[in-house]
Amino acid sequence: MATFAADSDLLEYEPDIASYGIQQFTELHEKTYDDIIRLLRIEWWPRADYGRYDLSVVTGRPNMNEDLVLKSQFVRAACYHVLAYYIYPRLSTFDPQGDVFREKMAYYKEKFRDEFDLCLREGVKYDFDSSGTITDSEDDPVHFNRLVR
Q: How far apart (Å, rounded) are the C-alpha atoms in residues 35 and 40?
């Protein structure tokens, strides 16, 4: 299964994460991958300039091919997401007075949303023509809600 990040990437943000008793996060990285791809399909793909290279698209829109997304662009967002939505919820007691893991969940949820929004604003790196490389013309950000002349 594909992932955006690995355990080694996670250690960059939380070096002591393995000390809490969970030694491997592979299936959690896979869930995060699915979640981020789902968000891309909802928030980015409907506005992407997919018709630029595929003239066979007349009505409707083609499906996004997740293999054509540049995975390294989402490493940081994936680390934030797996911490906020999968790792720290497993560690939290959900005590009404709060605990350190709930604080970290809230922190990383906010960091994930900020990072994901930055990736969208920067322009998702997507190999529209399936050539195996992302050219300069494919790397142009797609402008939303403004007139481009």
A: 9
Domain ranges of the chain: 7-122
Contacts of 110 (CB under 8 A, 6+ apart): none
Residues 49-63 have pLDDT tens digits of: 655 555 444 445 578
Q: What angle do CA 90, 93, 85 make, to 5 degrees?
A: 35
Encode pLDDT of 24-50 as tens digits.
Answer: 899 999 999 999 999 999 999 887 765
